[in-house]
Amino acid sequence: MQYDIITEAEMTQHFGAKRFSKTAGDWLDQRIRAFAPDLILCCRYSGPHANRILMAGKKRMIPVVYHIDDDLLNVPRELGESKWRMHNSRERLQCVRQLLDQATMVYASTPGMYRRLKTLGTRSPIFCGGIYCAARVLRPATMGGVQRVGYMGTSSHMHDLQFVLPALEVYLDRNPRVIFELFGLSPVPEVLARFGDRVQIVPSVNNYGEFLKTLADRKWDIGLCPLAHTPFNAVKANTKWVEYTACGMATVATRGLVYDDCAAEGRGLLVHSEEWADGLQMLTDNPEIRYRMTVDAQTHLMLNYSENKLQQQVFNALGQAQKIHAEVAGKQASTPAVAFDDAGRILSA
């Protein structure tokens, strides 16, 4: 499959604050014309020129698919003031609304996201897949004592980590040989500063493949998946469970949100807000339980979250978009739809 990627960052690099200008829109049109795509896929896009993207689809008579994995119409302030201001600007909200209502099809990341989009009155047809993130096992489960516990996230996730910090203090006091690492999140929270070099920062890694390799190389025994019970988090994907499991660690996750299914039946430890310290201690005191939990999680990962399964799901989604487009255009009988095979090639008559 051939593809061309156009990002808002690239547009900003060329045009700066004038990325919403007609000149920038003309540049985008030219990029699309030059590549001559059979389908346009917008991934959680909220940038300039949504109307140009939709018009390019109409002119070329091809589908425009909008993939969305967060409620971008309701980004909360707790993600940080700058992110809140950016995502709630009039231009970005208009872009998201326009794509939700005028794209050929919206590709929702999770069943929760699907339901939220319905609640938001999305006018375009919505496709929802069974999985959002896939991975292969990079580090098999190992038996042994707990040496490292970690949390992976960005600055916008600090509010999720915040409510488990008291439990982390208790746990680190109880287990003086355990190191706690923050991957991609800095600085060290003030309440943990007293632990000195037992709390460490791992710098963020932008390349996703390198990020997973780095995460596996940290050799965490337990990975934390705290989520605040907010409407925004209610439609999140279970990405952290997938990544932690692939990297050979047991997962402790907030109960009552997206991890309830993937971490069920002993594939993770689901806890309420007051159970974090005891849950961490139980896994620390019982290496056999922690090992079996990680093995079961990795088996579930290989069976249900494989890269092949996700690839097939994406191809099915794009094929569905082609079908919807053909039906809307009234050409289903005369124009064969484009299909996507397992090798990732575009097949057309």
Structure, described:
With 349 residues, the chain is of the alpha/beta class. It has two domains: 8-132 and 308-347, Rossmann fold (3-Layer(aba) Sandwich); 148-304, 3-Layer(aba) Sandwich (Rossmann fold), CATH 3.40.50. It contains 14 helices and twelve strands. The strands form three sheets. Strands 7-6-5-8-9-10 form a six-stranded parallel beta sheet, sandwiched between helices. Strands 1-2-3-4 form a four-stranded parallel beta sheet, with helices on both faces. The protein has a two-stranded antiparallel ribbon with strand order 11-12. Helix 11 links the parallel strand 9 (250-254) and strand 10. Helix 8 (165-174) packs parallel to helix 12. The longest helix is centred in the C-terminal third of the chain and has 23 residues, at 307-329. The chain is globular and about 65 Å long. Residues 335-349 have low confidence and may be disordered.
Largest sheet: 6 strands, parallel
Strand content: 5-15%
**Termini gap:** 16 Å
Q: Could you estimate the helical fraction of the residues in percent?
A: 40-55%
- The side-by-side strand order for the widest beta sheet comes to 7-6-5-8-9-10
CATH class of the largest domain: Alpha Beta
Task: Record keyword descriptors for this entry.
349 residues, Rossmann fold, six-stranded parallel sheet, four-stranded parallel sheet, 43% helix, disordered C terminus, Glycosyltransferase
Brief summary:
This protein is α/β, with parallel strands linked by helices and 349 residues long.
Write the layout of secondary structure elements.
Layout: H1 8-15, H2 22-35, E1 40-43, H3 50-60, E2 64-68, H4 81-87, H5 90-102, E3 105-108, H6 111-119, E4 126-128, E5 148-152, H7 158-162, H8 165-174, E6 179-183, E7 199-202, H9 208-217, E8 222-225, H10 239-246, E9 250-254, H11 259-262, E10 269-271, H12 276-285, H13 287-304, H14 307-329, E11 339-340, E12 346-347
Parallel strand pairs: 1-2, 2-3, 3-4, 5-6, 5-8, 6-7, 8-9, 9-10
Antiparallel strand pairs: 11-12
Helix pairs in contact: 8-12
